[in-house]
Amino acid sequence: MSRVAGSYGYIAPEYAYSLKVNEKSDVYSFGVVLMELITSKRPNDTWFGDNKDIVKWVTEAALSSPERKTTENASSCCRDLRKLVDPRMQLSTSDYEEIDKVLDIAVLCTTSFPINKPSMRRVVELLKSSQNVLQLAMDIKNNSRLMFYVLLMCFFIKFHVSFGTDTISANQSLSGDQTIVSADGIFELGFFTPDSNLVLFNESRIPIWSTNLSLTISSSVEAVLLDEGNLVLKKLSDNSSNPLWQSFDYPTHTWLPGMKIGFNKRTKVNRRLVSWKNKEDPSPGHFSFELDPSGSNQYLMLWNRSERYWSSGEWNGGTFKFTPNVTYLQNTYPFNVSFVSNENESYFMYSVTDPNFIIGLIMGASGQIKQMFGLKASKTWFQFWLTPAQACEVYASCGAFSICSEQTQPLCACLAGFKQNSEQDWNLQDYSGGCVRKTQLQCVNNSLTDGKSDGFLANANMLLPNYPQSVPVRSVEECEKTCLNDCSCTAYAYENDECSIWLGNLLNQRKLSKGDPNGKTVYIKLSPSEISSAANDNINKEYFPTWAASIIANEGVDVLSLLDPKLEGNADAEEVRRICKVACWCIQDDETHRPSMAQIVRILEGVRIYTLGSNTTSAAATSYSLNLFPKS
């Protein structure tokens, strides 16, 4: 999923917590659709009132009167359903029991805990059966309630103590797992356990602000966590808008509405977003998002505060030059961006125009900026903008001596002859430490192994690393020798009679697709033992989807070679080819090139009426023109 896995209002709540889609996610969406069909109301219609959506509204109505199932009089059932059913439906001719049953199944599909949701197979069985679905839903509701209360008691008794207020005075203490919560329940402040930083959490327990500051204050001062997520220190009973101190003046990796991101021309203080080191460590990472310090009204993303890898383009009063979709986003989502520049300061700030929503912009540990929005009533967050769109466009995203490839998972891998500098960091998707040599170069040890000196290993289809040094030579052999004789030289490339060498760490290496005109061959210096090992490991393994696409595009190749060996070739070759072609079509990088589910069904049924044009390309088939389904 590239951004949001579904449409807002139909997405299962657990997706907001894990950002992962499971087999029960579609069951929730199906339940919402059933409710929408019967009630004719949109999932997040304002008609439901504060803190309610269609799921809460239907569930409360459906489960509040269990006696309706035992009512013999259909009109009595009708009275219970009248407030739910679309008025345009003629109740006098409707099958009340069927409507009742469908609503109960919808409630079952949208239960809070994924484990309690039925499978789609089970949903079909319930629609066909005469089982009392309401009783099943009531049992699950009661079990879920019991589970919730047990968890809640454990949470509060063993792990957590909350002040139950948004204010803590100077003579009160906040320690351990104690927290204060903003008045609307959206933000929570507490201590971050690993290093006791003071941390601001959103309602999903995701830290969005932390500090190492230590303040000495008098007893006449209190700290208040405001509804917008701003922690302020102010004098008691002082309702002015000028606090003694506020967290919005010290941003970390999250930009909230009302916060200024820019710089003070008098104090030279630059308020920038700085990424976390990784998803568990809030210490400053390598990436920052800041207003151009040279004075232009554009934003930059920097690696190590120096290497620029993205810019927004200058602000023209409505959008940024290189980010024109900001206008579209402002027209689609409830927020406005404004720019202020005077003799004292220059900054951007944004505001939310609908109080029911909250929006945040996060400088991620991956070096990408993502913008999130959420509905306060449901307390869930969804991503609606991400840049750079490709993680490998971030400078040095994989650290030194590693390769970034959008075609693999994980996207970072060490060069042959190198290993992860920190396996623990890599497990946290923190690749900034990069890779280190498995075996030191011979030139470092001033020795030879079995009479062999250091050598080079070719890496094809690579984007050349930054900052090469040009060396005047007359041949590729001279280029290689120049690098070999310099122990600080780690790689060379020879293209169009030009020799380039690199000294020290190799950063920002990207693996490109076959046929990409920017792809070059880079020769990495290795010890002789590592060159031999890399050869044995067959480092030129091909990405499976690309290989599979080449097989199915070639009518002369046995497509059954793609089959799992356990099937022992027992399959229809034409069926296998058709399924593989559909798979290649479904994984196109450009979503406009992907088929609809209706097209997929018709193709799998053998109705060959769709044509994939020559512009159809993807990570799975970048080198192939897949005219796979000629019109019959």
From TrEMBL:
GO MF term set: ATP binding; protein kinase activity
Coiled-coil stretches: none
Keywords, ordered alphabetically: Disulfide bond, Glycoprotein, Signal
Keyword Disulfide bond attached: yes
Top-rank lineage group of the source organism: Eukaryota
GO biological process, any: recognition of pollen
Residue span, Bulb-type lectin domain: 165-288
Official protein name in the record: Non-specific serine/threonine protein kinase
Originating species: Acer yangbiense
